[in-house]
Write a structure and sequence with these properties.
By secondary structure, the protein is of the alpha/beta class. The chain contains ten helices and six strands, in the order βαβαβαβαβαβααααα. The two termini are 30 Å apart. GO terms for molecular function: DNA binding.
Amino acid sequence: MTDITLLIVDDHPVVRDGLRGMFAAEGSGFRVLGEAPDGVRGVELALELDPDVVLMDLRMPGGGGVDAIAALARHGARSRVLVLTTYDTDTDTLPAIEAGATGYLLKDAPREELFAAVRAAAEGRTVLSPAVASRLVTAVRAPAAPPADTTLSAREAEILALVARGTANRAIAAELFISEATVKTHLTHIYGKLGVKDRAAAVAAGYDRGILGRS
C-alpha cells in the first residue's frame, strides 16, 4: 500500500518535530514531505510538493490557517486540509470549514484518532472532532433565514449521501450518469434547502435532520 504523504504546517517547532516523529514511525503508512512555520509558506510547499493531506494549524504569526486553506482552494490544490489545532471556538471552527477544510481535529486527540483522521481526509471523507461537530450542528439548526422549501428531492438526497461518503463531484457525476455541472447545481440547491454553505455543514445537517440517518 502506498504511504499517505503529508505536509505539516505549524508555527511551533516542537509540535512539528513531534508530529514528524509520530508519522515517521516504522510501518505507520505515512510519509512527511515537508514542514512550514506559517500559512503562507504552507501554501507554497503544498503547491510544490502536492501532499495527500496538509495538517494545518490555525493561529500562526506570518499567515493564519484559514487564509491558507482558502488560498489552496483558489489554486485548485489536490491536497486535503485537516485542521489540527487547540482552538474549537465558533470564530475558529466555522471559518476553517467554510474556507474548504476537509476536517477539523483538536491537538489533544489520541494518536490512533489522528491517524484515522488523516486516512479519512486522504480519502476525501469529512472528519470532525465531537466538539466541532456539535458546533456545526448547532449552526445549521438555526439558519439566519430558513428557505421556504427545505425538503430534498430523491436525487438531492442521493447526492448528499454520496457527499457524506466523501465522493468527489466528478465521481458523483459518473456514478449517476449526469454532468459535473448538474451535480454542482444540485449541491447549490441542497445548500440552500439546508441553510448551509459547504459540503461538511451539509453532511452535518443531513445527519441532524435524519436525511442520512443518525450519527
